[in-house]
Structure formats: C-alpha cells, structure tokens
Amino acid sequence: MNKLMQASLIAFSLAFSFAAVTPADAAGRVNARGAVANPEGGITAGSASAGKGRNGGRGVRAAGVTSDGQGNVRGGSAGAAQAAGGGTAARAGNFQRNAEGGGTRSGGFAGQSAAGGRAQSSGTVSGDGQGNVAGVRNTTAATAAGATYDGQTTYDNNEGVSHTEVCHNAAGSEVPCRQ
Questions:
Q1: The pTM is what?
Q2: 139-144: long-range contacts at Cβ-Cβ below 8 A with a sequence spacing of 24 or more?
Q3: C-alpha closest to that of 115 among 94, 78, 82, 86
C-alpha cells in the first residue's frame, strides 16, 4: 500500500473516531511548537496549546520569542481559560530586551466569576540597563453586587514605591479600602 493511501486511511480513521465521541466525553489537548532562523540573523520560536476538559472547561495559550542576532530579543505570551461553571480568565504579557541591557516588560490579566465578580490588572516595568528602573500597575475589581476597588502602584528606584486606592460600596459611596 502506498504512503498516500496509508496516510489517508489513518487520517480518516482518526477523524471518524473523534467524530464518534459524544460531547460529554470530548476532552483533550493539542500542542504545537517550532523555531526557525530569521532573516535578521536570530531565531524566531513559538508554541501554542489548547485543551478541553471532560466537564466543559477549556483553555488556550500561546507564546513567541524572536531575536535579531545582535543581542536584541522580544517576545510575548497569552492565555485564556473558561471554567465549566462559566468563570473566565485571560492574561497576556510581552517583553523587550535590547543589546545594551535595557528592557521593558508589560502584562495584564482579567477575570470574571460566573456570579459576576470581576478583576483586571495591568502593568509595565522598564529599566535602562544602567540601574534605573520604573514601573506602574493599575488594578480594578468589582463584586457582583457592585462594590469596587481601584488601585495604582508605582515604583522608580529614585522615588521608591507609591500606592493609591479608592473603594466604593455597592451603593456607590466611597468607603475605606480593607487591608
């Protein structure tokens, strides 16, 4: 039997076996990854995966990185998930590092419960390769009933850490934030 016919029979058998699985039993995971030399003299690589649980939870993630052969690198990653009960979450981030030693990193996440509570946060930090570093992170959260939190944290190596926050109850009145 020639290779094309063998491959076709295998592919058909696999496709049929997956099609015969009932939705309640459908679960699994898929992965892919690779790396290649790029025209800038560096490497570009990436990976991705996705999966689904037997009870309906599912998630995906991916990442990639590239260099230019001169010492500069940048990349990023992201992921998302959904629980069988309806809660969701996602995150993403990226970075850049230059040959002189400076760099930046940014990232964030967001999530929501099936009941309606939610939170999100994002931030970035950078350095110049000479010892100077600065960053900021902003975070918000809310309960399903409507109470909220908004906060910001900043840092730089000359000024130190600074944090501000504001909280509101479900009626919208400002209240002290709990520690």
A1: 0.78
A2: 141/117, 142/117, 142/118, 143/117, 143/170, 144/113, 144/115, 144/116, 144/117
A3: 86
Residue position matching structure tokens 């990653």: 77
* Assigned token pair, 163: 């944090």
How far apart CA 164 and CA 60 sit, in angstroms, is: 34
| Phi, then psi, of 69 in degrees rounded to 5 | 80, -5
For the stretch 125-179, pLDDT in tens is 999 999 999 999 999 999 999 999 999 999 999 999 999 999 999 999 999 998 6
* Cα distance between residue 39 and residue 69, in whole Å: 10
DSSP labels for 29-52? Answer: EEEEEEEEE-TTSSEEEEEEEEEE
Which three-class secondary structure state does DSSP give residue 99?
A: coil
What are the backbone dihedrals phi and psi of residue 59, each rounded to the nearest 5 degrees, phi first? -160, 160
Radius of gyration of the chain (CA): 23
Going through 83-168 in order, the beta strands assigned E by DSSP cover 88-97, 103-112, 118-127, 133-142, 148-156, 160-168
Integer Cα distance of 94 and 117 in angstroms: 27
What is the distance between the alpha carbons of residues 107 and 135, in angstroms, rounded to a whole number? 11
pLDDT of residue 2: 41
Half-sphere CA count of 77, side-chain side, radius 13 A: 10
